[in-house]
Amino acid sequence: MNLPNPPENNCHLIADAQQLNECCHCLAIDKDSLRADLFQQQGDDRLYQMLIEERPHLFTDVAVFVNEATIQQQRHLITAIEKVVALPAYQRTVLAYAPRSAAFIPKARGVFLGYDFHLTPNSSQLIEINTNAGGALLNALLISSQKTLHPALATHTLDNPESAFIAMFQTEWQLERGQQPLKSIAIVDEHPDTQFLLPEFMLFQTLFARHGIKAIICDPSELVYRDNAVWHGDMEINLIYNRLTDFGLEAPAHYALCAAYLANAVVVTPHPRAHALYADKRNLALLSNKTLLQELGVDNDTINTLIDGIAPTVYVDAHDAEALWLRRKKLFFKPSKGYGSKAVYRGDKLTKRVFEDILQGDYVAQTLVPPSERHLSLDNQEVTLKLDLRLYTYGKQILLASSRLYQGQTTNFRTIGGGFARVVIITDEEHYE
Which are the contacts of 322, defined by CB distance < 8 A and separation ≥ 6? Predict the structure, then answer.
């Protein structure tokens, strides 16, 4: 049922997330507070300018509402996935098509696993998993800088996500090095000065510094592997926060970094094995296949949780070309090692030529799960944007929930009114009176 737009201060009278996403136009970002927070951290307005002025569609001005039952279903699904990933039979299966670097078994788990969902009328469907999911610290900043909507509409997240993030990096270090002090971190990506999420790298650099850890932002070419250690100039690097999209460290430019990682000369997180176990898109074809899961020895309750919660996915095989073409309008095609919505195709938009390229590539086909919607007002005009939900996790722990609003085929940060949105959870126990 569509409700009339309530006055901004009456949104708390509505106890259904879908209705709130349709009618609540509450302003959820306080730019003055954000500017003050960043000035306090950085000592100038440069980061604020990068986030708000140079990237005007990074943050949206509205919150996204989600029912508590949906979050609980997602939590249950994540637990089920972790259970399967721990199985030796599953690991043997997925490592068979992984890069050689994934055979190395580090003690570190991998920071910032990201589970991306599309919301459905009754629950949600997992559409992909990412191992170097960006945006967690940006969303923590967004939450801390926003106006309170209403006491009953609280953000469902950790009390202090930044402390949880630091604890996560410390845990990764201690798993590998015990009680040795973590002194230095390199935040590594290709040409970081050109990356859209460079402001987040800078926020991490400041966060690490506040906890006594020296951090640099650099291209992997700036690192040298010598004397059984990794160096940036005359500074030895203890840990690499890996933001590279070469997930197996297979590119020639990353050979030295890969060698240092395999020699355990530096702690790398997230690492190739984490991507192989979780984020290769082919894994979803296994995790959503009842027969294959049974062959791995997965129990029925876990299988049911996976089948109910994951968008059905199959590996694209040229032998199935005719059947896939006939079903294409109900499918979404993704490269197995893809990221950032690159080279993905909606089946109803496919040409024969592109389909032939997909058959020759390394793709999966996923049943199309239409994203839910967020209605907002822009310049006194009603606008409808698509939304997805991302849960950042470490192990089974949910660190933070965020959402992205967008128009077009896939998520982006080019949509007017779109961007990262604060997630507010509506619980069954709350009464809005």
Answer: none
